[in-house]
Amino acid sequence: MARFGSRYGELDEAVGDPTLEQHVFDLAALEKQEASKHLFDQVGWDEYLRAGVFLSQSEFQLLERAQDNIDFAMGNATSAKALANLLMKLADKCTASIPAQQYVFTRVEEILQCSESEFSSRAALFTVDGVNIQDGPFLRALRSNDSYIQKSSSVGLALLLTACKGEVNSLITWLCEMLSSDTQGATDISIPALTVLMRKESCRKPFAAKGGIGIVVNVMNRLGRNGNAQQLYDLTFCLWTLSLDDAADIPAFLHSGAIGTLTEMVLAAPSRKVVRMAIAALLNLTTGNDEGVLTEMLTGGLTKILENMIHANAHKQAGDPEVEHDVRNLFEVLMRNYRDFSTYDRWVSEVKTGNLRWGIVHTEKFWRENAKLLEGNDFEMLKVLISLLVSDSPTVVAVALYDLGEFTRFYPNGRGVVKSLGGKDSAMELIGHSDKVIQRHALQCISKIMVTNW
User: Is the dihedral of CA 295, 300, 302, 307 positive or negative?
Assistant: First the structure.
């Protein structure tokens, strides 16, 4: 299994500041200290002082002193706790002021940007009892209409959850919603917090349980090989952390197409650090010698990619012994398990993982040569294929419809077999699908079932 040590130290590199909506300054592009100084001047402190409800003169003076020297304020346990309590009070009470909310959560992030030796004690400042986070203001801020507040509060809460107890499931639910959203900028807002949260081993399992592995893979596929290199690295890092545990959710990695996506990252090489992390994740997944994992890697061409890297000494050029170690180890694992795969073997591997994708095993030539092979084990693989017609992936459904139609054409009495297994009824239900591609393939599939000479 890959080591967590030195790569764990790359987390600061992983959590970049994406460009969010523009304010007077691009706050996301500023260091936290610069951003908090700018925001401090934007908050209407005089109004709060005159009202005398949310802020007293002595509290404002504490904010001013801390603004001049945050380390000085943190150096005294009493003033540090007073400042943290004050920030949480402002976050809880001053909800109508966007600058105040922006300032508070930026300040929290700044306080938590400290040495490892200081982190636990600083995180404890934002708890009610030294253990449980005062997370109400953070959870409310996640639903803000301001993207900067959402991003800053989510990162702050994620940082706290790596050291203290809190509503981790609420943050995970929000992250899954944002990463799955089509809203512009939603992934930019949520990726940094996810990258932080995946540091914590206890947070990975609940994220995976909510379909997190598939969600991350979908975001990576949307970005594509030419997408933002920093975001691809962040997401690959998340998959790596999810592959670390001995109890890693192997079925989720298989069914989501994660192995193919990680292989694509190695081949495309959007940056060296993406390649490094993708190879480390793939190596982790081989530790259990799962047949499905090894088959997916072998049929996906990973062996040839690694062989080319070794022959070109590409694995040594980065000057990183861990990269060289991981490339060679992964290549050796695959070579020990290497075997020639027929095109039918590849098709079976795709169907079993539920990750159908257009290619040479979804063509007329393939079905003309292999349709009869599906009769084994009482048409077991045909039954699995039909079950994929209810997949959440439009591509999987479209490919499954194509394959079902082609089987009907080339297998003797294919129409009768497909009808008896419920394939015709399942395909009929997809004729009115909202996705036009699925709709087209459903019509073609039904036509092949109904027409004697297609």
Answer: positive
Token match 């917090």: residue? 193
The type of residue at 420 is S
Longest dimension (CA), the chain: 88
Asked if residues 222 and 266 have their Cβ atoms less than 8 Å apart, the reply is no
What count of other Cβ atoms lies within 10 Å of the Cβ of residue 421?
Answer: 18
Interval 101-141: pLDDT, tens: 999 999 999 999 999 999 999 999 999 998 999 999 999 99
**Other CB atoms within 10 A of residue 102 CB:** 25
Q: Say which DSSP state 338 is in.
A: -
In the 3-class helix/strand/coil scheme, how is 108-169 assigned residue by residue? HHHHHCCCHHHHHHHHHCCECCCCEECCHHHHHHCCCCCHHHHHHHHHHHHHHHCCCECCHH
pTM over the 0.85 mark: no
- 127 phi/psi in degrees, rounded to 5: -110, 165
Q: What is the mean pLDDT of residues 416-423?
A: 96
Tell me the C-alpha distance between 373 and 112, whole Å: 60
By C-alpha distance, which of 87, 105, 195 is closest to 146? 105
**Alpha helices for 181-269 (secondary structure H):** 186-197, 201-209, 212-223, 229-244, 250-255, 258-268
Q: What's the token pair of residue 225?
A: 């090989």
Which residues contact residue 172 at a Cβ distance below 8 angstroms, ignoring those fewer than 6 apart?
197, 203, 206, 207, 210, 212
User: CB neighbours of 320 closer than 8 A, spacing ≥ 6?
Assistant: 276
Strand (E) or helix (H) holding 85? helix 77-93
| DSSP label at residue 375 | G
Rounded CA separation 381/373 (Å): 9
Q: Which residues contact 317 (CB under 8 A, 6 or more apart)?
A: none
Tell me which residue of 451, 388, 399, 392 sits closest to 422, measured CA to CA: 388
Concatenating the DSSP letter of every residue in 284-337 gives HHTTT--HHHHHHHHHTTHHHHHHHHHHTTHHHHT--HHHHHHHHHHHHHHHHT
Q: Evaluate whether 433 touches 392 at the Cβ level (below 8 Å).
A: no
